[in-house]
Amino acid sequence: MPHSTLRTEVKAGPRTARDARFERYAKVDLGQIRAVRAQTAADFEIVGNIRASGFGRVVNDPARQMTWIDEVDTLPGVFSLIGYDTDNQPIATLRVQDERRAPLELRKFVPLDDLLLPADRPAAQFARLSVVKSPQAVDAMFALFKAAWLWCREKDLQTLVIATPPWSKPVYDFVFFEHLGAKGAFCHQYAGGAQHVVMKLPVHAAESMWRAGDHPLCTAFLDIRHPNLAI
């Protein structure tokens, strides 16, 4: 949808699942989540467990052995975040990759150079977003997104790219990611072979897009400073 037209009020007629989802997204409390980088073996065990909890629910073959921590996790310019709730329980994780240090994982699956413009470079890839069932799950999801987006802006990366299955695409639509078309479609083992699409968001222009669209996350993302999300 065009980013200038997003609103969260419920239109006349039956209330839809999309209405409920967007209303919940608009009420996030990012101040209750602590974001940290995974550094130790114990941290990566937590990351792997959260990934297994999330992605394991959609893998078609329950008997298939998945390596939840893979070779990309050890590449230069790659780090994973862990989101802790108010009880100091780890409930979310997100991986960030800087293409200036190593080729993005997406290059294995799609012709990324055909999908991105020269002005889109350098790019970062967000991947392996996974959240466990929790009352603060949505807060943690957007908290890690804000933490990673601010890091990308500080490091002068130009574009965020992600690959998402259909059930997660509304999250990225909500924050104005752009669908990159049929060339960005592929099937990913991490989601049981489900088809994914590639989407992008300009790092520096995101703020003006959100403000121009009167985005409901403007306050949480732009107007409130969250020291708990400094990474």
Account of the protein in words:
The chain is of the alpha+beta class and 231 residues long. The protein has a single domain (16-228), classed as Gcn5-related N-acetyltransferase (GNAT) (Aminopeptidase, 3-Layer(aba) Sandwich). 28% of the residues lie in helices and 22% in strands. It has helices at 17-25, 41-55, 112-115, 137-154, 169-174, 206-212, 218-223; strands spanning 34-37, 78-84, 90-98, 123-131, 159-164, 178-179, 185-188, 194-202. Strand 4 (123-131), helix 4 and strand 5 form a beta-alpha-beta unit. The relative contact order is 0.18.
What descriptive keywords fit this protein?
globular, 231 residues, eight-stranded mixed beta sheet, alpha+beta, disordered N terminus
> What's the CATH topology name?
Aminopeptidase
Helix content: 25-40%
Distance between the termini: 31 Å
CATH class: Alpha Beta
Topology, number of strands: 8
Mean pLDDT: 90
- Work out the strand percent: 15-25%
Per DSSP, the total helix count is: 7
Task: Extract low-pLDDT stretches.
Answer: 1-12
